[in-house]
Amino acid sequence: MMDMEEQEVEPLISDVLIVGRSGHGENNGEGVVSDFSIPSSPEVIRTKKVIIPSDEESDLLSEDGEPETDNKISNTDTIIHMLKGNIGTGILAMPDAIKNSGLVVGNIGLVFMATMCIHCMHILVNTSQELCRRTNLPFLTYSDVAETCFATSSSPRLRAFSSTARTVIDVFLCITQLGFCCVYFVFVSQNLEQIFNHYYGEINYHIYMAIILIPMLLLASIRNLKYLSPISMLANILQFIGLGIIFYYLLQDIPYSWERKTFASWGQLPLYFGTAIYAFEGIGVVLPLENQMKTPADMRGWNGVLNTSMIIVSCLYIAVGFFGYLKYGDSVAGSITLNLPVNEFLATLVKVMMSLAVFFTYALQFYVPVDLLNPFIQRRIAPQNYLKAEYALRFSLVMLTFALAAAIPKLDLFISLVGAVSSSTLAMMAPAIIDTVTQGERCSWPRAFKNLILFILGFFGFITGSYVSIRNIIKYFVGEEEP
Predict the structure, then answer these.
(1) What pLDDT, on a 0 to 100 scale, did the predictor assign at position 96?
(2) Which of 103, 191, 230, 236 has CB 3.0 to 4.6 Å from 351, enough for a Cys bridge?
């Protein structure tokens, strides 16, 4: 590693933390504050963090230790990355979400939920920028924001929860990403099953899942993100072409809107919430993208990068959900690709393209929990065993997602459960708490009340969505529900 030149520390900054990258091998994650030093006096609450870059990272730094501007991304690039980060299997499940709510209620609800989720993204961005000014840090990750907002609080009681806040966010990030990986297993297997069963006869669903297990293990063995970049680009191309062909099918011979339910039932609304909140999966990419922007201030504003990209995403969600349910009604599947005819070449091509896109995306989603868990394991083993431990972790996590996907082969229920448990926490509850703690005594009553409403809505969706999803999964296992 290369030592960074020591910076002058402001008088209000209590300590200087020298933090190494929590990397493994060629992969290097974000700098993590291992011992966030909190002073006894509430007036002195800031801590300076100096990150020691690796040899590879040092090439991206200027002489004063700051990232080179040439390596930053433009606003257009950020919008493209925001679109890629939010458009995944969730958009293909939107018609199923509308089925659980009704054509009118579901689409109005999507507008409402999109507004809340975008607002929570703004909360996270604004809070991150406020905490960066407060601590003189160049950037913060989601976990950093959660820890720093508590660590810089004027309340000693809240400061005591700083490490707990980081742990909670890290745990839910792991749950979210591993949940996505489980959904990807189910998605690819079900689409392959539909294609091959049509041409070669009935084969057990778990056979297809076992077939893709070996390629998944090989894909998960890639330790360096730069080798995943071409795969990611190919996945994006396949996904957007496939989405265009899906619209081609959805817009043919659509029935009248009054032939569909305007409202489903109160009992199905928790499933709707879980599926819809699952689709807004991009809150985890907001801060990393803002940290890489040439002009981070452009992320905010009514016509900023965040609003522009998320409005495009929300319109796509609503369009797929509306026309998907309008086309197929209550027979719509957990993924709209499963409703496309299997006897047409173009429809089969879409299933293959979307399956490949999701398969390639597995490695990218898989990288996050590995990056979070690997340092925890490395602290407990000898350095010569780091590489073996990392591969053991990677293969164990793949087998875990494989086992969960094989045990619960219900794509719609799996998506709703992941959304209710983890996405509601990261997308709604956590930003509300972070904003309130960051504001501290300066938090006005309207702001505190608004944050309380966001937290209550997220918590209510968390409880009801998890309960209904788990109940329906149990019904599936005991044979009360048709697979």
Answers:
(1) 92
(2) 191
Q: How many CB atoms lie within 10 A of CB 16?
A: 14
Please give the structure tokens belonging to residue 351: 């299933």
3-state SS class at 299: helix
CB neighbours of 49 closer than 8 A, spacing ≥ 6? Answer: 16, 17, 19, 31, 33, 135, 137
For residue 58, the model assigns a pLDDT of: 38
What's the pLDDT at 225? 67
Q: What is the 3-class SS of 434-476, one letter each residue?
A: HHHHHHHHHCCHHHHHHHHHHHHHHHHHHHHHHHHHHHHHHHH
Q: What is the identity of the amino acid at 252?
A: Q
Quickly count: other Cβ atoms within 10 Å of residue 215's Cβ.
12
Report whether pLDDT(39) > 60: no
Alpha carbon distances (Å) from 369 to 11, 29, 272: 37, 11, 27
Within its chain, how far is the Cα of 242 from the centroid?
21
With 0-12 / 13-18 / 19 or more C-beta atoms within 10 angstroms meaning exposed / middle / buried, residue 319 is middle
- At 16, which helix (H) or strand (E)? strand 13-20
- Asked if residue 6 has pLDDT above 60, the reply is no
pTM of the model as a whole: 0.78
- The secondary structure of the chain in percent helix, strand, coil, rounded to multiples of 5, reads 70, 5, 25
